[in-house]
Fold these 4 entries.
Entry 1:
Amino acid sequence: MHKFLTHCVLILLLMTRHNVQAAELAAAPVQQPQTIATLSLAALDTLDTLGVPVQGLVQQYALDYLQKYQNDSYQNIGTFFEPDVEAIAALNPDLIVIGPRSAKFKKQLSGITEVFDSSVWGGGFFQQFHEQTLALARLVNKEAEAINKLTAIQQKVSRVKSIAPERGKALVLVVRGGKVYAFNTASRLGWVYQDLAIPSAIDNTESSDHGQLVSFEWILSVHPDWLFILDRDAGLGQAAAARTLMQNAVIAQTPAAQKNQMVYLDPYAWNVGYGLTAVDISISQILDAYLNSELNP
């Protein structure tokens, strides 16, 4: 009965509409877009995962599992911060998808065709992720496929939430430009603690999008049982540096290092953010880390 009720609640959550935009889109007759341009890396990920062709995209950051988009078969449409409006218009798209970095161009791009803002930002990451994924999936007639993918991800989330609270406190770190930044429950990566029920090693609730610059000695002082480490530069296609930086005598004294619970997160998936495949990779890696720690206490 408990599993049945949980499943029902999940389906209700997945069918919730995020905002007025999503409600309007759901009410409109759905016609499969033939030409799509996306200024959101996460949306590119989701459309690719659902098997929906995309003709225009920001090629600069189409790396790793999205590298197939780095060829002349696709139109490069500028950057997230500076879209090439002429190139987008030349595609004559039926749908333009934007994200947080390109949201300010919505009005301008709406002069070309329908624009969907796929942004996921702020609190309630997983609820936003579910709702925005479904809204986009409806636009491309892939709602059933999206629900299947989201349900599988939610099952992994539930598994993490059942394990993590009893496995010690964690600290999320981002390595960027040779420096280390700590992210707390109120930060943009706070969903790791909040949505996955992972206890935080720090009590600071001051919000910061870019994290708090910290030293190795500070990390040692908060005694984290887990370190979840994201190499931001590697996620942008630059040389990986986090592992070398974090392998030092001070970090070696932390409970996380001594318990072999330093987890180097997939940099590209975390850079993509809220794409279907990216989130699946991210949650799977965290779940695997906890499961492996149970096997090797």
Entry 2:
Amino acid sequence: MKCSVLINNYNYSSFLSKAVNSVLEQSVLPDEIIVVDDGSTDGSCELLQNNYGNNPRIKIISSKNRGQLSAMNLGFIHSSGDILFFLDSDDEYDPHYIESVLDMYRKQPSCDFLICGRKEFGAVNKNVLRYKTDVSLGYSVLSSLYGEYWEGGQTSTLSMRRWVLDAFMPLNLEAYWRVRADDCLVYGASIVGAKKYYLARPLVYYRIHDANLFYGREFNDDYQFKYKLRIKQLIRHLAHKTFLDGSNVFGLMKKEMASSSPEVFKEKYKLYFTLIRRADRHLSWKVSCLKRLLFVYIRSRKANQNSSVKKTFHKLYSNIFRYNYDHQTSANIQNKGSSA
């Protein structure tokens, strides 16, 4: 499999060489390294040309400052790999990262999008693993479309098959995503139907430093409102671009559930439970959906665990019945008040 590493940089000249060198020092080298400098003013372009300008494996692209999504669009357009890796210029790869990721894609042919564990270093020093073992996160079309569920990781922990990006990139939303453009990759991959996996090894080094735009920072209500609005706009744009209309909702939900490893089921079921509970449908429809989803889970577990699953269903049934009763009671009161 031919692979490309896409590095986006803006004014990180103090870290840039370490990022590029971490790719050049891989046990399995990528076929190409594409570095997009997004209009840096700190000498990054000169550093790249002086250190790597004669390296045939490295493509250096300089552009005006248009933000992170613009840099990702440019990197993708100039790439040719079957597997694409992303790397922020202040992060680094473990020497065996690419080798391990390619091995995962070979062992799991259904894997379209891979999230890797990370090691935070710099101001802190710790490994961050979402799961203890490698797992299938499955599909997340419905959960992203209706629940705005973010099934992803930091930019540098992401890789994916080319067809995934071909389905929605380049993305013409650059003005809205000058930063946090990894959200575009995460939601885009979900909505086009990429099956996601998680590699439970800290093979990406995520640098913590004073210039981090998001790590450890708090944001005010205005920022949070605008960010949530951009997410809604992004999802709607992606759904329109990929002609996704949300038909056969329960069928999608069932397939997404079945595509996930048992370790992921509980997390997904909570999300689907919320989506079903909020649906403007009768109680019988809601309970039927929950029952059928639980049967998917029961089939994926050992027989001696079925009793605990049944207990879980009875608890969920009680909660959804109570919610439906309260919702209907509130609606009746409002109707009576308006007719009085």
Entry 3:
Amino acid sequence: MLLWSFLLISVSVSQLTDDTLEVMLAVQQHFHCDCVYVLDDQHDVTDINKNVYVSQKKLILKNCIHAVFPYVGKGPLFTRCIRPLFVLHGNNSEHRINLTSLFSNVSYSEAVWLMFIETHSHLEDFFAFIDIPFDFEFLIACLKDDGVINLTEVYRVSSTLPLQTHPFGNWVPSSGLVGPELGFYQRRNNLQKLALKTTVRQGFFEGEFFVKERGRGYFFSQVWLILSEYINFTPQYEFSSAEGNGIRLQNGSWTGLVGELQSGTAHLTAEGLSMTKARDREVDFIAPIWVERKVPFIKASSLYEYSWSNIFQPFTCQLWIALILTTILLSIGVWLINYVSCQFRPKDEELTSSCTYFNSLFNVFGNILNQGQTTALKSSSSRILSAVTYWTSVVILAGYSASFVSYLTVRHPIIPFSTFHELLEKGTYRLGLLQYSSLMPYFQKAKDPVLKQLYKKVIAPHKESTPSSSLEGLLRVCNDTHYAFMYSIDSIDKYSADVTCQLTAVPNAKIQTMKSMATVKRSPYLGLFRHTTRKLQESGIAKKLLVHSSTKLPKIDVPLVIVAFESVVPTLYVLIIGTIAAITIANVSEVLAASIICKDL
């Protein structure tokens, strides 16, 4: 049974002045309230959806509802409205008692409150023991001598801090309501050094990832420092010794940082939590500002990929086809030029010998390979065409040589699997997850059949022996050649000095998760944190931090790479095959020529 406490006013709707009703209408329209609650101690709970008129002609309020305090029930009146407007007339002691009881039991942060008083002089006394939360819109309407009704916002940053009063606007009979120019969280962007308990893990502001200014930890720590300075609050850090961000246990409680927020031990966490549906039911995420990519890491293989096709990989198939067609067209051009020259100079034996198409083809092919020619070109047309061929070949050979040399010097380890499906089919690898990682329920409740089978066959049988820390999981990879550990590809560098082997990532077996800081459920400061975080994103500050965190890598001394014999085996095979083919063709040509001469004799 929920307690829906509806405040009362000491006069009925029919006794309100026209100006009061006009102000109620203006406030209702300004905040887009879909109903108005007028609570009367002299009437029963009646007149639901009553329309209020001025002079029985002008419709002034729609869905105006009478209610008596206290009203105990399931709240059918309140649940009819998405954003109600509650109206209170007068600041007597009975209203103060009702407000104190109401705000301490029920959250009405979605509602708008409007209270009519005669003077501002006793506001501090009236609200002395009333905690109006930071995210409440509570307006005080006061009539001035000139007929203008002044509207003032009142709230508290915390129950222990003084009452805050800020001008909201004025209602003028001739022009209506003139509201504020700034938005809600532009007017309320100062927490006045409020101390907020912030849970983080040990070493959040220490360690290699912070010193070297890279990685997820550095990014979130910098965002948090900017938020604390801009919003003006004081973080009181509660260092959690629990591993992982948190998973749900069978008794409904949570471990890790989520457990700290669920139990109320802390107000917020500055660390990035993976945004899952299960966690969203226990905490409120501020805003997704980091995309984490987790992939399996395996021990680097001592075997490397060597393929015959790598000889052709420097160029795409289309470029190879274009190169072949260019060679053919250029050879045809050279042949036509030589053929025409032969017609005009038939007695030139050197020119006559080059008039065949095959001679022209080998001439162009030699030019492309930057080889010299035994026969000098005599015509200007042939020389121009030859020069164009040489110039084209210089560019093509430079590109091919650069790519082929990089293939010879950069060795690519053989990866036993490239996707989760191949990992499942292989059946010889174990996939390790962090003990309190959000990936554990992700695989367990996955709708994808491959991930489901992967959890059932590869992860679940070894669930009891899952590593308790990321470093432990990476060290297991070094000790077991058939063990893969899921970890963030953006944060792997912080363990580069601790692991005892070279690791290889499997980039195609990737899981992306959104990371966000979080608050306790229904925190009054959630809206301010979301608003400020969006401002950081819109202004480009978050993006600059993201680039800085992701791209600033440590300087690595790359040793001189020695080309292994296995790398050039395909090239040597091509050389041997080409040499054998050339010798064979030469011998066959000599035999054929000798047989032809014998026949002529």
Entry 4:
Amino acid sequence: MKTGKFFGLALLVLIGLLAACDPPDDDEASPPTVITLLPPILTPTPRVTATLTPSHTPTASDTPLPTDTPTPVTPTSTPSLTPTPPVIGVVISNQNVNVREEDNFRATVLTSLEPGTQVEVQYSNEDGSFIFARLIDDEGQLIEGWIDARLLNMGTFVPPTIGPSPTPTPTQGPQATGESGFTTATPFIGGGGISPEEAAEVSDVNVLAYCRQKNVNPPRVTTEQTVSIMWSWFVKEPSFMTPHLQNANYEVLLDGRLLENYDDYRTAMTDKPIDDPASGNWYIYWFVPVGRLPAGRHEVTFRLTWDSAVNDGYEDFGPGTSNETDEGNCVFTVVEG
């Protein structure tokens, strides 16, 4: 009995539920809207952080290499320089010596110096034939110029040269070790490049090679004096001189020793000869320096021949003529100076 009542009651409840599930009519009121509240979305508030100010990034620099530590130098006292005294040359000649603008015998003459004049030696030219010197004249003026090296006594001093070192000049003629005891100097003329007056200044004394034939007394010579052996040739006109020079052979000996290369000591031709300026003839001279001679008797022998006949404007000379040779001599004495 109780079971049936309970079953009936359950059926009524089920029907009621089904009825409630039927869709409502349009006129019926809408059921209430159910609003579901969602929990709020919380946005986290950012924390305040400190803004870092960028710092300066240093530029990389080169790492210095290790260096040697200098050793301290102990200063030393600088010695004072003693000025080098000038080298003094003395004019050695029996005549005045020319001072020239350039180092050759054709250069302008600036002044002339008396024998014994002292000059300050500067230097020589390349071949040593001229010395550049200076001096103060009597008026206090500075004079500078070139002087023939053989006319200056510089003792043992060898002056410096300008330009490249000169090439040694081959030995000319007899040397100091010869039997006669004389030397032949280095050529100073070069064949006609010097005046007779200048050539006569080269040595202290000039000995004429044929003084006996010319009736000329030989000069007095001392062991301290330098000597040149001289001779000449003259013609009526300059055109006669060239054939003579081309054909002449001079054989001049001092105490039996031949003076070689005599043409290296030949002067220029002149119409004013040093021994007879008013002759009107044209002359060439030879002055061959032989240096200082020992005390005693000395003799020069002279002999001239020609390869072909020549004429001097007055007569013929040479082979086939009445003057095939020209000879002479001179004897002189050297005394202790």
